[in-house]
Amino acid sequence: MHYEGNIIRPPSEANSILLQVTVGCSHNKCKFCGAYNGERFRIKPDSVIMEDITFAAEYCKRQRRIFLCDGDALIIPQKRLLPILKAIEKQVPWVTRVGVYANAKSIRMKTLDELKELKKHGLSIAYMGLETGDDITLKKIRKGVTSDTMIQMGKKIREAGIKLSITVLLGIAGSERSAIHAKETGRVLSEIDPEYVGALSLMLYPETDLYHEYKSGEFVLLEPIEMLEELKIMIENTNMSRGLFHANHASNYLPIRAIMPKDKESTLQLIDEALGGRVALKPEWMRAL
What we know:
Layout: E1 17-20, E2 22-23, E3 42-43, H1 46-59, E4 65-69, H2 78-91, E5 97-102, H3 104-108, H4 112-120, E6 123-131, H5 135-140, H6 147-159, E7 163-170, H7 178-192, E8 196-201, H8 209-216, H9 224-236, E9 244-246, E10 257-259, H10 264-275
Parallel strand pairs: 1-4, 4-5, 5-6, 6-7, 7-8, 8-9
Antiparallel strand pairs: 2-3, 9-10
Helix pairs in contact: 1-2, 6-7, 7-9, 9-10
C-alpha cells in the first residue's frame, strides 16, 4: 500500500482495509483539529489507487470492509470515485462494506442520484463530523456551515440509502455555551435521525488555534463533571427512531453505548450515577485521541 502523511480512520474501521485515495482534508480549517496541519489536500493518482486495490485483492482476503482515507474522500469527483468503487467490486468482491468520511460540502457537491449510484456500487456508510448543532459555536470553530445545512446534507445521505455516523464533540463550546451546545446538538441529531452517533470529549491538540485560545485564557476547557453534564443534556434532547448513541471513544470519561430509544433512560441514570460519584470516571492518563 502507498501511504502518505497521517492516516486517519474512525474507531469502527480498525479492522478494515485502509485504502488511501486522498491526502489530507478538503476543508482543513477547523479550529480544534491539527490532524492535517501543513498538509495540502490532494487526490492521489488513479494509477496508485488501482495498484493498491490490486494489492488488497492479493493480500487482504480476510478483511470484509474497506475504508477510503483520508479526511474527505467523498469530495472526489463522481467520474473518478465511481471507477474506484467498481474496481473494488470487481477485484475485492468479498468486501461487504465501503466507508468514507464526508462533510457538508462534499455531500452538497453530489446529486442524490450520484449518491445512490455510489451506494449501488458499495458505498455503505459515511462518517460526518457535526461537532455541534449550535450555529454560534459552528462559526467560532470554523466549520464553514450552519446547522440547517448539516441537517439537509445528513438527510440527503440517508435518503440515498447510505448509513450515516455522526460525530459530536463534548466541550467544544467551552463553558459559556455548554448547555446551549448540548441542546442544539440534540436538536440537530433528532432532525437527521442517523444510524450512529459518536460523542467524543474534546482533547486539545497542540499548535491548533483552539489550543492557543486555551493557553491565553480565551477558551475555557470543561472539567470532567461538566463534560458529563453536557452529555446528559445532549442525550435528553436527542430523539432517534433507532440507532446507536455511543461515547466509548478513548477520549471519554464515562464509556456508554446506548441503543436508542430503548436505552435512553437507563443511560441517563448511569450518567446520574457518575455525577453522584457512584460510578468511577476514567482517569486522565487513560484518555487518548
